[in-house]
Fold:
Amino acid sequence: MTVQTGSGLLAEVTRGSQVESRHLGRAVVVDADGAVVWSCGDVEKPVFPRSTVKSLLAIELVESGAADRLGLTAEALALACASHGGEEPHAKVAASMLAAAGRDVEALECGTHWPTYEPAARALAAAHQTACPLHNNCSGKHAGLICLACDQDVDPTGYIDPSHEIQRRVTDVLAAMTGTPHTDANRGTDGCSMPTYAVPLKALAHGFARFGSGVGLSAGRAGAAKRLREAVAANPFMVAGTGRYDTTVMNNFETRAFIKMGAEGVMIAALPEQGLGFAIKTDDGANRAAEVAMSALLHHFGGDALCRTPQDHAVLTDTARQTLRNWQGVTVGEIRAALTI
Structure:
């Protein structure tokens, strides 16, 4: 396969009959052996995965036995993989995870922001309450690390530091899953103060092909990945929330598809039955472009194994062409996938 450079067209935004905006980026589909099935743009160029790798960070929580010893529910495991909207159920499950470890909200080092789901933020304000770290979209991931630390008799204080024992352990899993060294040279800091490591887009997709299929993983690690996928499939609301793309698509496809959005237009997916991993990065960081592009790729490469009913097809075709409306509710255009597959 010829190595591509630069970026390709991922999505277009229309107003009336005219294309008003275009989103460029990179995308790749990889099989469980690491072979590129399809690509657009330079997929060897590193990208910060951001929140797309939360499920990989949660593998150690399950594989070590910590999740079972602490009695974590499937909802909790799904929240450990989440970038949630800060709705009340999200905050409650995060609090329950901390309680299982004998800790409370003070142990979280993710910082505080208001719920990203606007009605939840308004409900807090209307009740004369303020946001706390439980409402941070990453609170489930952080609670999972605190649970792991406490189970392993490690002081969780400073768990966000790259040198912390628990941080080193979950980073080793990231490196193994993506086949890419995670060192000071490719490390940045995420919005929740956790480290994030730049890896080639192709390597990110391969990591999720392996996460979905178990190919190349030990029995224990493959089992942990499967348990996390099942927890997410059973509780897609926990992974994102009301009206969110990840929740909408996985609510329909259950264990047949695993999808996770990250910041700055990064998105991954895994199709376990086909053994395929997907990764997208938009040049301008637009999540809306990543969504429509991912639906187009899933529809094309998922085939009849993924889309078994008219409803399955409709979920992907509708999310690959999303209607745009103005404040009066008038349809003014659409955002649509523009990949050449």
